[in-house]
Write a structure and sequence with these properties.
This protein has 152 residues and is an alpha+beta fold. It folds into three domains: 50 residues, no CATH class; 42 residues, no CATH class; 57 residues, no CATH class. It is built from five helices and five strands, in the order E-E-E-H-H-E-E-H-H-H. The strands form two sheets. Strands 1-2-3 form a three-stranded antiparallel sheet. The chain has a two-stranded antiparallel ribbon with strand order 4-5. The relative contact order is 0.09.
Amino acid sequence: MTLDRGEFRKDKDGDLYYIKENIKTGIEVNIPITDIPLRIFQKYNFKLPKYTGQYFNRELQKVLRHYKLYEYPINHIRKVQKESQNLMVMKRDLITSHTCRKTFITLSVSRNIPLNVIMKASGHTQIKTLNCYVEAVMDKNEFRKLSFAEQK
């Protein structure tokens, strides 16, 4: 989601939100602006520079490398022309803006944030779109229960 064609508004409690209509769905998205993002917006006078997704992901990779984050190899299965390739890659090389969005949604579901709130923040219009995140979290939680039961 880009930060153009939207506006910043304060609610009745004085909390700041960024409000924009999602182009794909036509749904209004309200994103609460907390302290750290607010300081970043203020630094740029609420006019953030615009970058392409590819540029953003390259810069994200630079930050991850610079701070030595996710510096461990994982097995990554890549499909090329219906053929699977097993590759060992650094975890950080698989992190993109899209995986960050998926992580935000998954963590929100696992913290029992109401689905209508997640839908509004992520711009989803149908609950069935979030079902894969809900099911994944539920599966992990059920698995953890089994693991703890076996340890007792």
